[in-house]
Amino acid sequence: MAHRLRNTFVILALAGGLVAGGVVWQRGRVVPDVVPATAVAAPAVPVELASLEVSAVAREDIARTIRVSGSASPRRQTVVTAQVSGRLEAVEVEVGDTVAAGQTLARFDTVALRSALDAQQATLEAREAQRRLAASVLERARKLGTAGISSEATLLSAEADLLNLQAQVRGLEASVADARKALTDAVATAPFDGVVAERKVEPGQSVPVNTELLTVVDLREMEIEAMVPTSRIAEVRVGQHAAIRLEGTSGRTLDAVVARIAPVAVAGSRAVRVFLSVDNPEGLLRGGLFATGEIEVERFRDVIALPAGAIRRDEAGAFVLKAMDGRLRRQGVDTGAVFADRGTVEIAQGLKPGDVVVTAPLPNLKPDVEVTIVDLGADLS
Description:
Radius of gyration: 49 Å
Strand order of the largest sheet: 5-12-15-14-13-16
Largest sheet: 6 strands, antiparallel, barrel
Domain CusB-like beta-barrel: 224-295
Domain CzcB-like barrel-sandwich hybrid: 77-218
Coiled coil: 119-182
Protein name: RND family efflux transporter MFP subunit
Keywords: Coiled coil
Distance between the termini: 90 Å
């Protein structure tokens, strides 16, 4: 009995030793109880980039511009005023009528003016007759004085009478001229070819001198008063071109030119007034329309430009991510002009036409990453 127990303990000890040694007996051979796993790296999955997130580099002409806005107004406009006082006999035009230079716009009653002219003319003729008589008297006095018949006092009196009448004649001639002018001014005419923008009087009204009658505007040339920040006014020059869009023209772009620049900034605004001239031969534009546009202050030809967000920086400097052979490569670049109005930056060196670069703002993308460019347009179709 003791012998069997001893054998049992030996067997158990051997079994424990085998387990502790990390082996088992299987079909006549010893194998490890745990098989170590072999480390297998998963294949890298390429990053998919939409075709909208990359761009092929190309050269182009780029204009540096300044955005402006303002209201349009006719370059030439005149308020026609009454040059005489009196009753308006007729107003011959309405708002919106097209008029030609010299065309009658309004007429005053001229009965009183004609009477005044006739009276002045008659007085002038009478004074002219008196002047001629005084000239004859003076001539006779001089002859008599030479013969010793007339006194010096008589001669001096005759000379004074003639001088007095000559002065009266000159004054009456001026009065007659004024009366004639008043008769002419009784007809208000258009100062230039244009359109009636405002009518302020009606027939039958009695108005004093300088009363505003009508406003005439020339729509063939419009002017836009725009505001340019003082930080950029040094870039603006007379003669520079601008592209202007006015409300009411269905988004149509019109050519404009910088005509004038105010010499001082508007108080409290940090902006300077700039006047843009816009040709309007068809008369489609109207005063008061709101306008927006861009003044071209500089043009860069045959340049490469990328969105500002496409340009990255590290300790080595500026770079972009260029797609090449299925991977993103770090491509160092030298930057040039900044086109703030477009949100782009000139690439002076480092890229050539045809290079494909990441232009979308994707900060997590890094160089040496496998990429696949997906054409979203093709997928949608």
